[in-house]
Structures are given as C-alpha cells and as structure tokens.
Amino acid sequence: MKPRQPPASGAGGLRPELEGLLQGFRDFLVVERRLARLTVESYGLDLRAFAAAVQGLGAGKPSAWDRSVVTDHLGRLRREG
Fold first, then answer.
1. 53 neighbors 75 (Cβ within 8 angstroms)
2. Residues 18/55, Cβ–Cβ less than 8 Å
3. Does pTM top 0.90 for this prediction?
4. pLDDT tens column, 34-80
5. Shortest CA distance to 19 belongs to which of 32, 6, 31?
6. Buried b (16+ CB within 10 A) or exposed e, 21-45
7. Are 40 and 29 in contact (CB under 8 A)?
8. What is the rounded distance in angstroms from the CA atom of residue 58 to the CA atom of residue 41?
9. How far apart are the first and last CA of the chain?
10. Res 4: pLDDT
C-alpha cells in the first residue's frame, strides 16, 4: 500500500477559515484525545481531501455541509477506488 499524499490544492488552496478549523481539530486530537501522530496525520489528510472536494463544488462553508455532501464525497471516493 502506498502512502497517501495530501490532495493537490487549487490555485488558492483551502480557505483560511477551513485551514483554521482543520488545525483546531488536529490540535484537539493531539491534546484532548492523545492520539498517535500518524493517526492525526491520517485524519488530517482525509478531512483535507473532503474540505478541498466540497470547496471545489461550491460548498466551502461547513454550514453548507449536510448528509448528502458527505455521502456524495464518500461515493466519489468509492468509485475512484
């Protein structure tokens, strides 16, 4: 199995507020949940890929994320293998 790479960012990457949310979540995982570094990195990669995908579809604000946004993203991942 090859290591996962962070998703390629668009011209501007993720919006700063999304970057802040992701960093806050990673900090929570480290400080409060005491998860291993590789686990935190893995979660971070998955969440960054999700955030980049939905931002690219025009749903960049977390308030716009609902069940259908998440299931659509998971469906795309499954189809891509």
1. no
2. yes
3. no
4. 999 999 999 999 999 999 999 988 887 888 899 999 999 999 999 99
5. 6
6. ebeeebeebeeeeebeeeebbebbe
7. yes
8. 26
9. 13
10. 55
- Give CA–CA dist 76/70, Å, rounded: 10
Paired tokens of 70: 């998440």
Tokens 């992701």 correspond to 22
Burial group, residue 54, by CB count within 10 angstroms (0-12, 13-18, 19+) = buried
Apex 73 CA angle, 2 and 44, nearest 5? 50
What residues contact residue 39 under an 8 Å CB cut-off, 6+ apart?
A: 29
User: How confident is residue 81, by pLDDT bands cut at 50, 70 and 90?
Assistant: confident
Determine contact, residues 62/17, Cβ cutoff 8 Å.
no
- In this structure, what token pair is assigned to residue 16? 């700063």
